[in-house]
Design a protein that fits this description.
- The chain has 65 residues and is α/β, with parallel strands linked by helices.
- The protein has one domain.
- It has 2 helices and 3 strands; from the N terminus they run αβαββ.
- The chain has a 3-stranded parallel β-sheet, with no helix packed on it.
- The longest helix has 9 residues.
- It is flat, with a radius of gyration of 12 Å.
- It starts with a helix and ends in a 14-residue tail after the last strand.
Length: 65
C-alpha cells in the first residue's frame, strides 16, 4: 500500500456518501473529514456537499475527483 492510499483510507478522500444528512450520515462524515456528502440536504458536518435533487440526474458528480 502507498502512503496516499493510507491517507485516503483514514480521511475518506475520494469517497462520496449519498444521504449524508440521514441517520448515520453525520457520524460517518465527521469521522471522515475528506468524504463528500451527496444529496438533497446538506448535513450538519463541515464536509463538502454536492446538491442533487434526485437520482435521475447525477451530472453534478462528473467533476468529482
Amino acid at each position: 500500500m502507498t502512503k496516499a492510499h493510507d491517507v485516503a483510507a483514514a480521511t475518506g478522500k475520494g469517497t462520496i456518501l449519498f444521504g449524508g444528512s440521514g441517520f448515520l450520515g453525520p457520524y460517518i462524515l465527521e469521522n471522515n473529514p475528506d468524504m463528500i456528502s451527496v444529496g438533497r440536504r446538506r448535513p450538519s458536518t463541515s464536509n463538502s456537499h454536492i446538491q442533487i435533487d434526485n437520482l435521475a440526474n447525477l451530472d453534478a458528480l462528473r467533476d468529482v475527483a
